[in-house]
Amino acid sequence: MSGGLVGECTQEPAGRREVERVSPPARLPDPALALRSGPALCTWSLSLAPPPRLPWAACRGGANAGRRRADDWGRGQGTCAPAGVHVGPRPVPLRRVRLCPVRYGPARSRFAMGSGAAAGSVRTRYLVYFQYLGTDFNGVAAVRGAQRAIGVQNYLEEAAERLNSVVPVKLTISSRTDAGVHALSNAAHLDVQRRSGQPPFSPEVLAKALNTHLRHPAIRVLQAFRVPSDFHARYSATSRTYLYRLATGCPQPDQLSVFEQNRCWALRADSLDVAAMEEAAQHLLGTHDFSAFQSAGSPTTSSVRTLRRASVSPDLPSPFVLPQESRRLRFWSLEFESQSFLYRQVRRMTAVLVAVGLGALTPAQVKMILESRDPLGRHQTRVAPAHGLFLKSVLYGGHGDLATGNPAWAQWDRQPDDFSPETRGPKAGGLE
Questions:
Q1: Which of 102-106, 248-252, 374-378 has the highest average model confidence (pLDDT)?
Q2: What is the pLDDT of residues 317-346, one digit of tens each?
Q3: What domain range includes position 84?
Q4: How many CA atoms lie less than 13 Å away from 245 in the CB half-sphere?
Q5: Which EC class does it fall in (predicted)?
Q6: 71: three-class secondary structure by DSSP
Q7: What average pLDDT does range 58-77 have in this prediction?
Q8: What's the N-to-C CA distance of the chain in angstroms?
Q9: For the chain, what is the total number of helices (H) and then of strands (E)?
Q10: Structurally, how many domains does the chain consist of?
Q11: Pair 355, 274 in one domain
């Protein structure tokens, strides 16, 4: 009777066969006590949860030998069998779980980067030339954390994500331009790492793929070249040329053709004293401290730059201006060439030269402004509008230059081991 009472009150529901962690077994109720206590104890025993089960290995001899097996609880199987003898059903084996490589590290997951598809992949560096109309962008530099892409670099990197590179593609821009500034030809380098066994993209395929995935019509990739791994789009540049367009004979900005708006600085004056402007530009040529022509608070440590060329010349008539309008409108071009420029240096020099052309300053005063090294002076605080400025070209000493046919990069692409990195120019930065 006692055996039936204990077996009935402690019967385990069928189907429970999980393997749990090792824990000390609970003390079993005494059958004799159950007989003395009557039905009340039986009711209490029915509500008693079964003690924690022991895994199969823990019941085979040792300190747990002689204790009731967890799988045999309530079945009258007696104590655990001696070591090496199987009695009753075996526990369900534990399943192997694939661990997350991000949470648990690559050593505990076979899906970790470097042990799978990334092993043996080759990283290739490309030099990419691109152009854009800067009216719709907040400059060329990427704006991180923005909900929508508002920098030219944002759109280029979004297009580069479609290349399925093993590592994220990040662009290094050669020359950073402000909001509203355009570029006929800017440059950047990027690294693309394809999966193991896949050859690098050809430059032609890369340029075509980027143009295909670009989501803004005001950006276009011009050309791409394979370059050495130590090439740097910003520091390897040996020359940068900026173009500023002026339009005279425009009393009101809204009278300018819609195709020329945001493409030039419209001036009310009918003409400019070009000879005086050219004389003033001669004072700017050479190596000088251009502190007077940089914006206050510029992060540049040195304001010494070498201006190689500063020219003022009449521009061709605009094909977007009607004949009746072109009689009074005239276009002018100012070009500045240097290895690098200070922040807003070109726009400040343009404003001073325009003041000379309008008769507000003399060429001698331009020299005094340069020698003052004061960026907060009366005349040099004015900055020309951004929408008239174009980055015309970025050169790399004949190697990778868009205008020279790029013979050096083409030869390096065929024979990468013969390329001499000493052809790189001195380090410089381009800001405007």
A1: 248-252
A2: 888 777 766 678 899 999 999 999 999 999
A3: 1-92
A4: 24
A5: isomerase
A6: coil
A7: 48
A8: 98
A9: 11, 12
A10: 3
A11: yes
Q: Is residue 347 part of a domain?
A: yes
Torsion-angle region of 196 (φ positive above 0: left; ψ -120 to 50: alpha; else: beta): beta
Euclidean distance between CA atoms 225 and 398, whole angstroms: 13
Helical pair 345-357 and 363-372, crossing angle rounded to 10 deg: 150
Residue that terminates a domain, selected from 46, 72, 92: 92
Instruction: Compute the residue count for the chain.
Output: 432
Confidence check: pLDDT of 69 > 80: no
| Strands (E) located in 249-325 | 265-266, 286-289, 304-314
Amino acid code (one letter) for 120 = G
- Residue-wise DSSP of 213-240: H---TTEEEEEEEEE-TT--TTTT--EE
What CATH number is attached to the domain comprising 172? 3.30.70.580
Three-state SS across 41-81?
HHHHHHCCCCCCCCCHHHHCCHHHCCCECCCCCCCCCCECC
Distance of CA 175 to the CA centre of its chain: 16
The per-residue b/e assignment along 115-141, b for 16 or more CB within 10 angstroms, e otherwise, is eeeeeebeebbbbbbbbbbbeebbbbb
Q: Does 25 reside within a domain?
A: yes
Percent of the chain with pLDDT over 90: 49
Return the active site residues: 178
